[in-house]
Amino acid sequence: MSRFNLAIIGGGLVGASLALALQAGAKARGWKIVLIEPFAPGDSYQPSYDARSSALSFGARQIYQRLGLWQAIGQRAEPIKQIHVSDRGRFSTARLSAMEEGVPALGYVVENAWLGQCLWRALDKEVISWRCPAEVTRLQPLEDGYRLTLGDETQLDCDLAILADGGRSGLREQLGIGVRKRPYHQSALIANITTSEAHNGMAFERFTDEGPMALLPLPDNRCALVWTRLGMDAQRLAELDERSFLSELQSVFGYRLGTLRQVGVRHLYPLSLVEAEEQVRGHLVVLGNAAHSLHPIAGQGFNLSLRDAQALAEALLASTAPLGDLATLQAYQARQRLDQQLTVGFSDQVTRLFGNTQPLVALGRNIGLLGLDLLPPAKRWFARQAMGLGTRSDA
């Protein structure tokens, strides 16, 4: 039976980022790491009009720079130079600017396939081995770690298991780790859009009585659309023909980018706020969407998970205790608690505030948006949240 120091269950963007953050220190310590992933990454990056994307905060760029990966990622990262926030049918707007914040960009939009390729190519095969395609079907706690049973009934043991297998983690449920779930009764419609006018690095956050939408800049003058609507209405939009869909989107978004010319494949995702009731046990960490799944409109989910992964790597590499030591893992969780609480709270409150159609609430948020644009301290705070720097004092 194989024995590893760390087993990362889920080799997606979060799991691979953790592996990269651990890599140099693991090599120096002689640790063996295994990444277990059911879907094999492609051998090369293939451009696609319909590629799914992630919004990386400026804080995420800083993490990848420290890991030596940003130069590669940046080759196909579209900078967000401004963010335009508006409330449909009301007069106030707010604008955030990278120039005002003294940064090259407030964030970046990167195709997941490209980010994945950059991560997987950077992993050292002498330190990190792959089991792929493979799936963990059982996790059995041992006195000094965990025993993992794979789909082909092979087994391996590890000192520390990292559960990063997504928001619908069956292993989390198998281990009896409960979740706090707050359904939004909405679905996110995700698609790529082509506009007649150049986006020039502008991202749009537009709130409507039917739900919020975001339009984020992509390479090749495409935009990534995240359109949140009630479940049945989202399904209706997903089934419209292209011309009817673009017409309805145009009526809601307006002509800030000219005429909407093309929409790609549309995907629907039901939305809930999900938080694991436990993120650490002895020899176990729950990470990524398995730990917390957020509403996508504020673009904070992956960025928070990346900060978690970086903090966990730092905690493990700084500790002199045996790998999987509960006190070390609890110290990591305590360090991240404020960041998680503020980020989850920020995302949830923005979603709820702008999803409320009551006239007094609508008036209040309209005044709030106007104040945000007029009050530099408030604007600075909001910008730092958007950039993933909200709990840091050194940036």
Structure commentary:
It is a single chain. With 395 residues, the chain is an alpha+beta fold. It has a domain at 2-50 and 114-180 and 276-351: 3-Layer(bba) Sandwich (FAD/NAD(P)-binding domain). The chain contains 12 helices and 20 strands. The chain has helices at residues 13-29, 58-66, 70-73, 98-101, 112-122, 170-174, 231-239, 242-253, 301-318, 326-354, 359-374, 376-386, and strands at 2-9, 33-36, 53-57, 77-80, 82-87, 93-97, 107-111, 128-131, 136-142, 145-150, 155-163, 179-195, 202-207, 213-217, 222-230, 260-263, 267-276, 280-281, 284-286, 292-293. The strands form 3 sheets. Strands 5, 6, 12, 13, 14, 15, 16, 17 and 20 form a 9-stranded mixed sheet that branches. Strands 1, 2, 8, 9, 10, 11, 18 and 19 form an 8-stranded mixed sheet that branches. α11 packs across α12. It is globular. The model is unreliable at 358-375 (pLDDT under 50). Residues 6-338 form the FAD-binding domain.
DSSP E strands, number: 20
Strand content: 25-35%
Which runs of at least 5 residues are low in confidence (pLDDT < 50)? 358-375
The global form is: globular
